[in-house]
Amino acid sequence: MKNDSSGASLAEALRVEIRALRPGARLPSSRALMERHRVSPVTVTRAIGQLAAEGLVVTRPGSGAFVAERPRPRADPPDFGWQAVALGDRTVDASTVRELVSPVPDGMIRLSGGYLHASLQPSRALATAMGRAARRPDAWEAPPPAGLAGLRTWFARATGPDLTPDDVTVTGGGQQSLATVLRALLPPGSPLLVESPTYPGVLALARMIGLQPVPVPVDTDGLRPDLLAEAFGVTGARAVYCQPTLHNPTGAVMPSQRRERVLAVARAAGAFVVEDDYARHFVAEPVPPPLVTADTEGRVVHIASLTKVTAPSVRIAGVIARGPVAERIRSAQLVTDFFPARPLQEAVLELVGAPGWTRHLAAVRTALTARRDALLTAVARELGAAPRRPSGGLHAWVPLPAGTDDRAVAEAAARAGVRVSAGRPYFPAEADGPYARLSWGAAASEAEIAEGVRRLAGVLP
Amino acid sequence: MKNDSSGASLAEALRVEIRALRPGARLPSSRALMERHRVSPVTVTRAIGQLAAEGLVVTRPGSGAFVAERPRPRADPPDFGWQAVALGDRTVDASTVRELVSPVPDGMIRLSGGYLHASLQPSRALATAMGRAARRPDAWEAPPPAGLAGLRTWFARATGPDLTPDDVTVTGGGQQSLATVLRALLPPGSPLLVESPTYPGVLALARMIGLQPVPVPVDTDGLRPDLLAEAFGVTGARAVYCQPTLHNPTGAVMPSQRRERVLAVARAAGAFVVEDDYARHFVAEPVPPPLVTADTEGRVVHIASLTKVTAPSVRIAGVIARGPVAERIRSAQLVTDFFPARPLQEAVLELVGAPGWTRHLAAVRTALTARRDALLTAVARELGAAPRRPSGGLHAWVPLPAGTDDRAVAEAAARAGVRVSAGRPYFPAEADGPYARLSWGAAASEAEIAEGVRRLAGVLP
């Protein structure tokens, strides 16, 4: 329980306690709660009031708050068997996504996930911007369906000189962008070419909406154009999903010439390129501009999320597309999600337009570079491995000893107090070997990163 | 331009002005902007700074701010023809959804849409709650993937006595809930039974994700169980979407006995019932409890949105489901959207837990009842029509003279200064006659409602 000025946070803690108590049990006194949680009397009153409103506690003036009777259990245990028939054999595998967004237990070191540690997040600037945004007279009205004009302008300017606000649709984050774009581009049943390995979230999503991910291998320069051409030919696919800059998980950066070849191959196939530019703000060394800036025919649909370079709850991204597909993407976004909450859009617009924004980006890049070097040094020392050194980003792709089961390694590592990502879920089909993906963005410090790698080394054969 | 303490709002207004100016043109002086927009010097400086950061203006110390050069046009006009081939013949029809969420021009009266007028929104309480939520130490971290425990508890308690927080998944609003639920329940290509008429947003969504909406007529008690049984038999459908309480658009409330029959029919068909409970908070006269409370076998998937009873940008809803389908819904939500931003969840939790919440609900109900009566009185007087008087809600379903083209009426009404919804888009297939849906929630006042109906009367034959 963090020390906090709001009753909602105290209420949240008390809900957990209440579950462990029997109905009628008395809650600690207001005084005890004030001391234990270091909060004011007002905060305690607000928290208890909220729990009473929810029916979790009953208050008796003069004697205190008591755990309420629980809802009576249903007479018969429910029989859900019919659901298995109705639902059929489709499943939705959210395990890899859940791992990305779930917190780690106390004491466990996090070398997984794609979010910045709290100490690297611009929380204060966000709080100020959001406080201001939420108080405006029209704060809670609908924003323009495609997003605030200022935010669309910012995304266009931040991405490339020829892009305009009309090319941008604001969405509720990178994953929602991906869902919208894939649904807009491809009918159910279509193949979707993806890098192998690739971001597991795109695999889970594609399968859920009825697309068939088809792997195309990457090398140290990213997606292989020769095999991409072959895959288009074999499958008749109309789209390829890729991360040309700091590819997840290998960290490869596609050189300019390779980018041109990928665009040419897509052109020859009459296909779209979905460019997931998740790592643009994490570039430590110069890299080519985004694919979309070299695109003159609306071939590239570009996804630029602001979540990774800020904080997990900044659920805002921009999708950039030109030509008829832009209208389809905008319509698809509107039909499935309407629009991201206006105060969030306003707060993000203020954040990226403020003088502190470039300082934030510079600070994050500096911190991540130091963390990357700490992680790679520890990997060399503890694991005797020398993975590729990415030109920035958030993670390294570490080969494990031949014959290792990478999922078993990740499980053993978790028992030893460090969360790493097994490489297996990153492959759309067979893996080309055992890997672990080690992230340096989510840990608390360089010392913690080094300790995490030590713990991982301890479970390797 | 509203008077506002923040520079972002001024910047938004200036962006529109800048588009109309040529590059190099000088912006009004700071003093002129302060006077015209009634803002402080700090606000002007912040706004200009933001526009400069976006590259829209260039500032020259001592002489002012000037419109920047526009991006040079591309050498060749782009040829997007290939996209038509790649995209094929699918389209996404967002027109009805766009109408729901788009603002109306100045001077036009709004008798359309499902949101409350700004004067009925709890904007101040939301601003306070959001300001507090955004400042908490963990505000911007990821919330639990299924939603804050307190918010799930609140949704469960607010819906029925036997429901638990584990039955609830928090989503980013009603439309997103619908997208998640339909995707989780049905594979692409499946039939989906819907009321006829029904909410156009479900039709657009179902078609986009590859489902086939199959109409089942409603009568004055809502969905007809006899025809529902027949539709299940003919199509083999595994789900029906319905609004048993204050059906949109007819306003019908399904009586208890009818509810039991609908559940029995769904049981016999081995199918799910998706209960869209959008109007629960707008009930002016007693109605039966939600379908989900009579469900003992996980048959009903219940969608409870908080947007309509608060404000358009409160993008928070709860999906209630039990049995294996609950896990599938939770996974589907995670894979397509991750989670709604934590500050928004915290702010909403504080809002609904505060003592002012029940006062807000009561005030909204009182205001809407008066508005309903004003609208129905005006309709009787001006149109000579006597539509059913709904037991609450936001709208009336008004039959137009036989032979009228309801879309043409809506267009003529818009030209005459009132936005109403044509009935046609509410029908999955053929319409049973011409209608207009008139909403009393979004107009500014009862006087405006009466004037809107007068304007509509003026365009009728």
UniProtKB/TrEMBL annotation, chains A, B:
It comes from the Bacteria. Coiled coil: none annotated. Keywords: Aminotransferase, DNA-binding, Pyridoxal phosphate, Transcription, Transcription regulation, Transferase. Residues 4-70 form the HTH gntR-type domain. CDD domains: AAT_like, WHTH_GntR. Pfam families: Aminotran_1_2, GntR. One of its GO terms (molecular function) is DNA binding. InterPro entries: Aminotransferase_I/II_large, HTH_trans_reg/aminotransferase, PyrdxlP-dep_Trfase, PyrdxlP-dep_Trfase_major, PyrdxlP-dep_Trfase_small, Tscrpt_reg_HTH_GntR, WH-like_DNA-bd_sf, WH_DNA-bd_sf. The keyword Transcription applies. The keyword Transferase applies. In the C-terminal section; belongs to the class-I pyridoxal-phosphate-dependent aminotransferase family. This is Aminotransferase class I/II-fold pyridoxal phosphate-dependent enzyme.
